[in-house]
Specification:
The chain is mainly alpha-helical and about 350 residues long. The protein is built from 14 helices and 2 strands, in the order H-H-H-H-H-H-H-H-H-H-E-E-H-H-H-H. Helix 2 crosses helix 11, helix 4 crosses helix 6 and helix 6 packs antiparallel against helix 7.
Length: about 350
Amino acid sequence: MRTARSKLYLLILLLGLPAIGAVVVTIVRAVPWLKMPDEAVASIEKRWAEVEKWGAPAPAAIGDDSELNSAVVDKDVQASIKESSENGSWRIDSAHLPQSAVDALAKLIAWHKGNGGLGNQNCSLSVGLPRLHLIALRLFELALLSATDDPEQEQVVAALHLAQTLRASRELPDVALGFKSASLAVDWARGRGLKPGQAWSRYRPRAEEVFFALARETTCMEQTQNELLALSRKMLLGGPVFTKRDPSEPAEARPPLGLVREYRELVMNRQFIANQLQRAYPERHDLSKLALAMTPPPLNELPKCALVRSRKGEVSPIVAAKQIGRFAKIIEAYDQLIAASSTVKIQR
């Protein structure tokens, strides 16, 4: 009887060994995903505070936007602007502008004289373009195309100021629109055969504006990720947070069983972002070097953090190297235009 029972126990043990082994392997694989970083949390938070400063809107972008918000560029004027841009004339008849367009230009100049801004700057995470952004682009085009051949005319300078303010907000939609406006300014000046004045140098696009936009996008994205993690934890009544793996992701992209520690995820994510941006900061004046510094390592070399690996280590997946390259070309074209004028010195 004892022999039979021993054999039964042995059989159960043998049958259970694979399951026990699987549990042990899972635990071993899970530990790196649950272990806190070696760096002290206080040190990470101190470095993160620096990242948040980089991502804060520049003071020039925070100001009254009421003049811009109340400006109106009607559809007929928009059609004239589009036709002028497409046929290469870069000019619309300023003598026959509707009163709404005249008022819009007056509002832009008043905004410029009053050192206006873009109002409250909240994280938009590059979703859509608010009404103000559309107005800004239309005002910019209207100011240039209805101007005389004086590149220092007040409405032209006000438009350049608007483009710089968009970039100073450090919000990616604003920054992209500010660079697009700078590119349009170059086309306008070349199309009319004009040499820029000193204001063009004062409001020139700069490479570091891209770096600060990346920092802004990062802090906004991190804020949203924190809120989503907190919501998951609340829904689970304070229990552990589980992450869902995308079927297209390799197994190593997510922790075993999808189990993570919320606080540890937030700390690891901030550490990785701070590392990447602090490495890129010295390269902020050179976009080719900046793009290289922002390139993430291979997936298997990324920290074992679901938040980091969910975006494959990109600090901002929205800004690809291709877009950074486009910004670099705009800066180069703008600076070449300024350099062609012997009376203007580029302000670095």
